[in-house]
């Protein structure tokens, strides 16, 4: 089994703490997918920004449609959403 070092929300400092705090406000928790990138806060910030741009940008698909696509893809990949 692989092991990936992560930083818990309680241990987070600086930029990572800010990113975790934002995630907590958005979702009510810090998702595991975010914690996987915790040792590289710059990468985490870029990933979060891309996600927010895709999910919340105006035009194209509605937010509901984006969420439904994410659910279907997660299910197809046998992945918790």
Tell me, rounded to a whole number, the average pLDDT. 92
Total helices: the number is 4
Helicity range:
55-70%
**What letter string, H or E per element, gives the SSE order?**
HHHH
Any idea how many domains? 1
> Roughly what fraction of the amino acids lie in strands?
under 5%
End-to-end C-alpha gap: 22 Å
Q: Total number of β-strand segments?
A: 0
Largest sheet: none
**Structural class of the helix and strand makeup?**
mainly alpha
Identify low-pLDDT runs.
none
Shape: globular
What integer value in Å does the Rg equal? 14 Å
Key words describing this protein structure:
4 helices, 81 residues, mainly alpha, single chain
Give a structural overview.
By secondary structure, the chain is an all-alpha fold. It has one domain (14-76). Helix content is 59%, strand content 0%. The protein has four helices and no strands. The chain has helices spanning 14-27, 32-35, 41-56, 63-76. The longest helix is centred in the middle third of the chain and has 16 residues, at 41-56. The radius of gyration is 14 Å and the shape is globular. It starts with 13 loop residues before the first helix and ends in a 5-residue tail after the last helix. The mean pLDDT is 92.
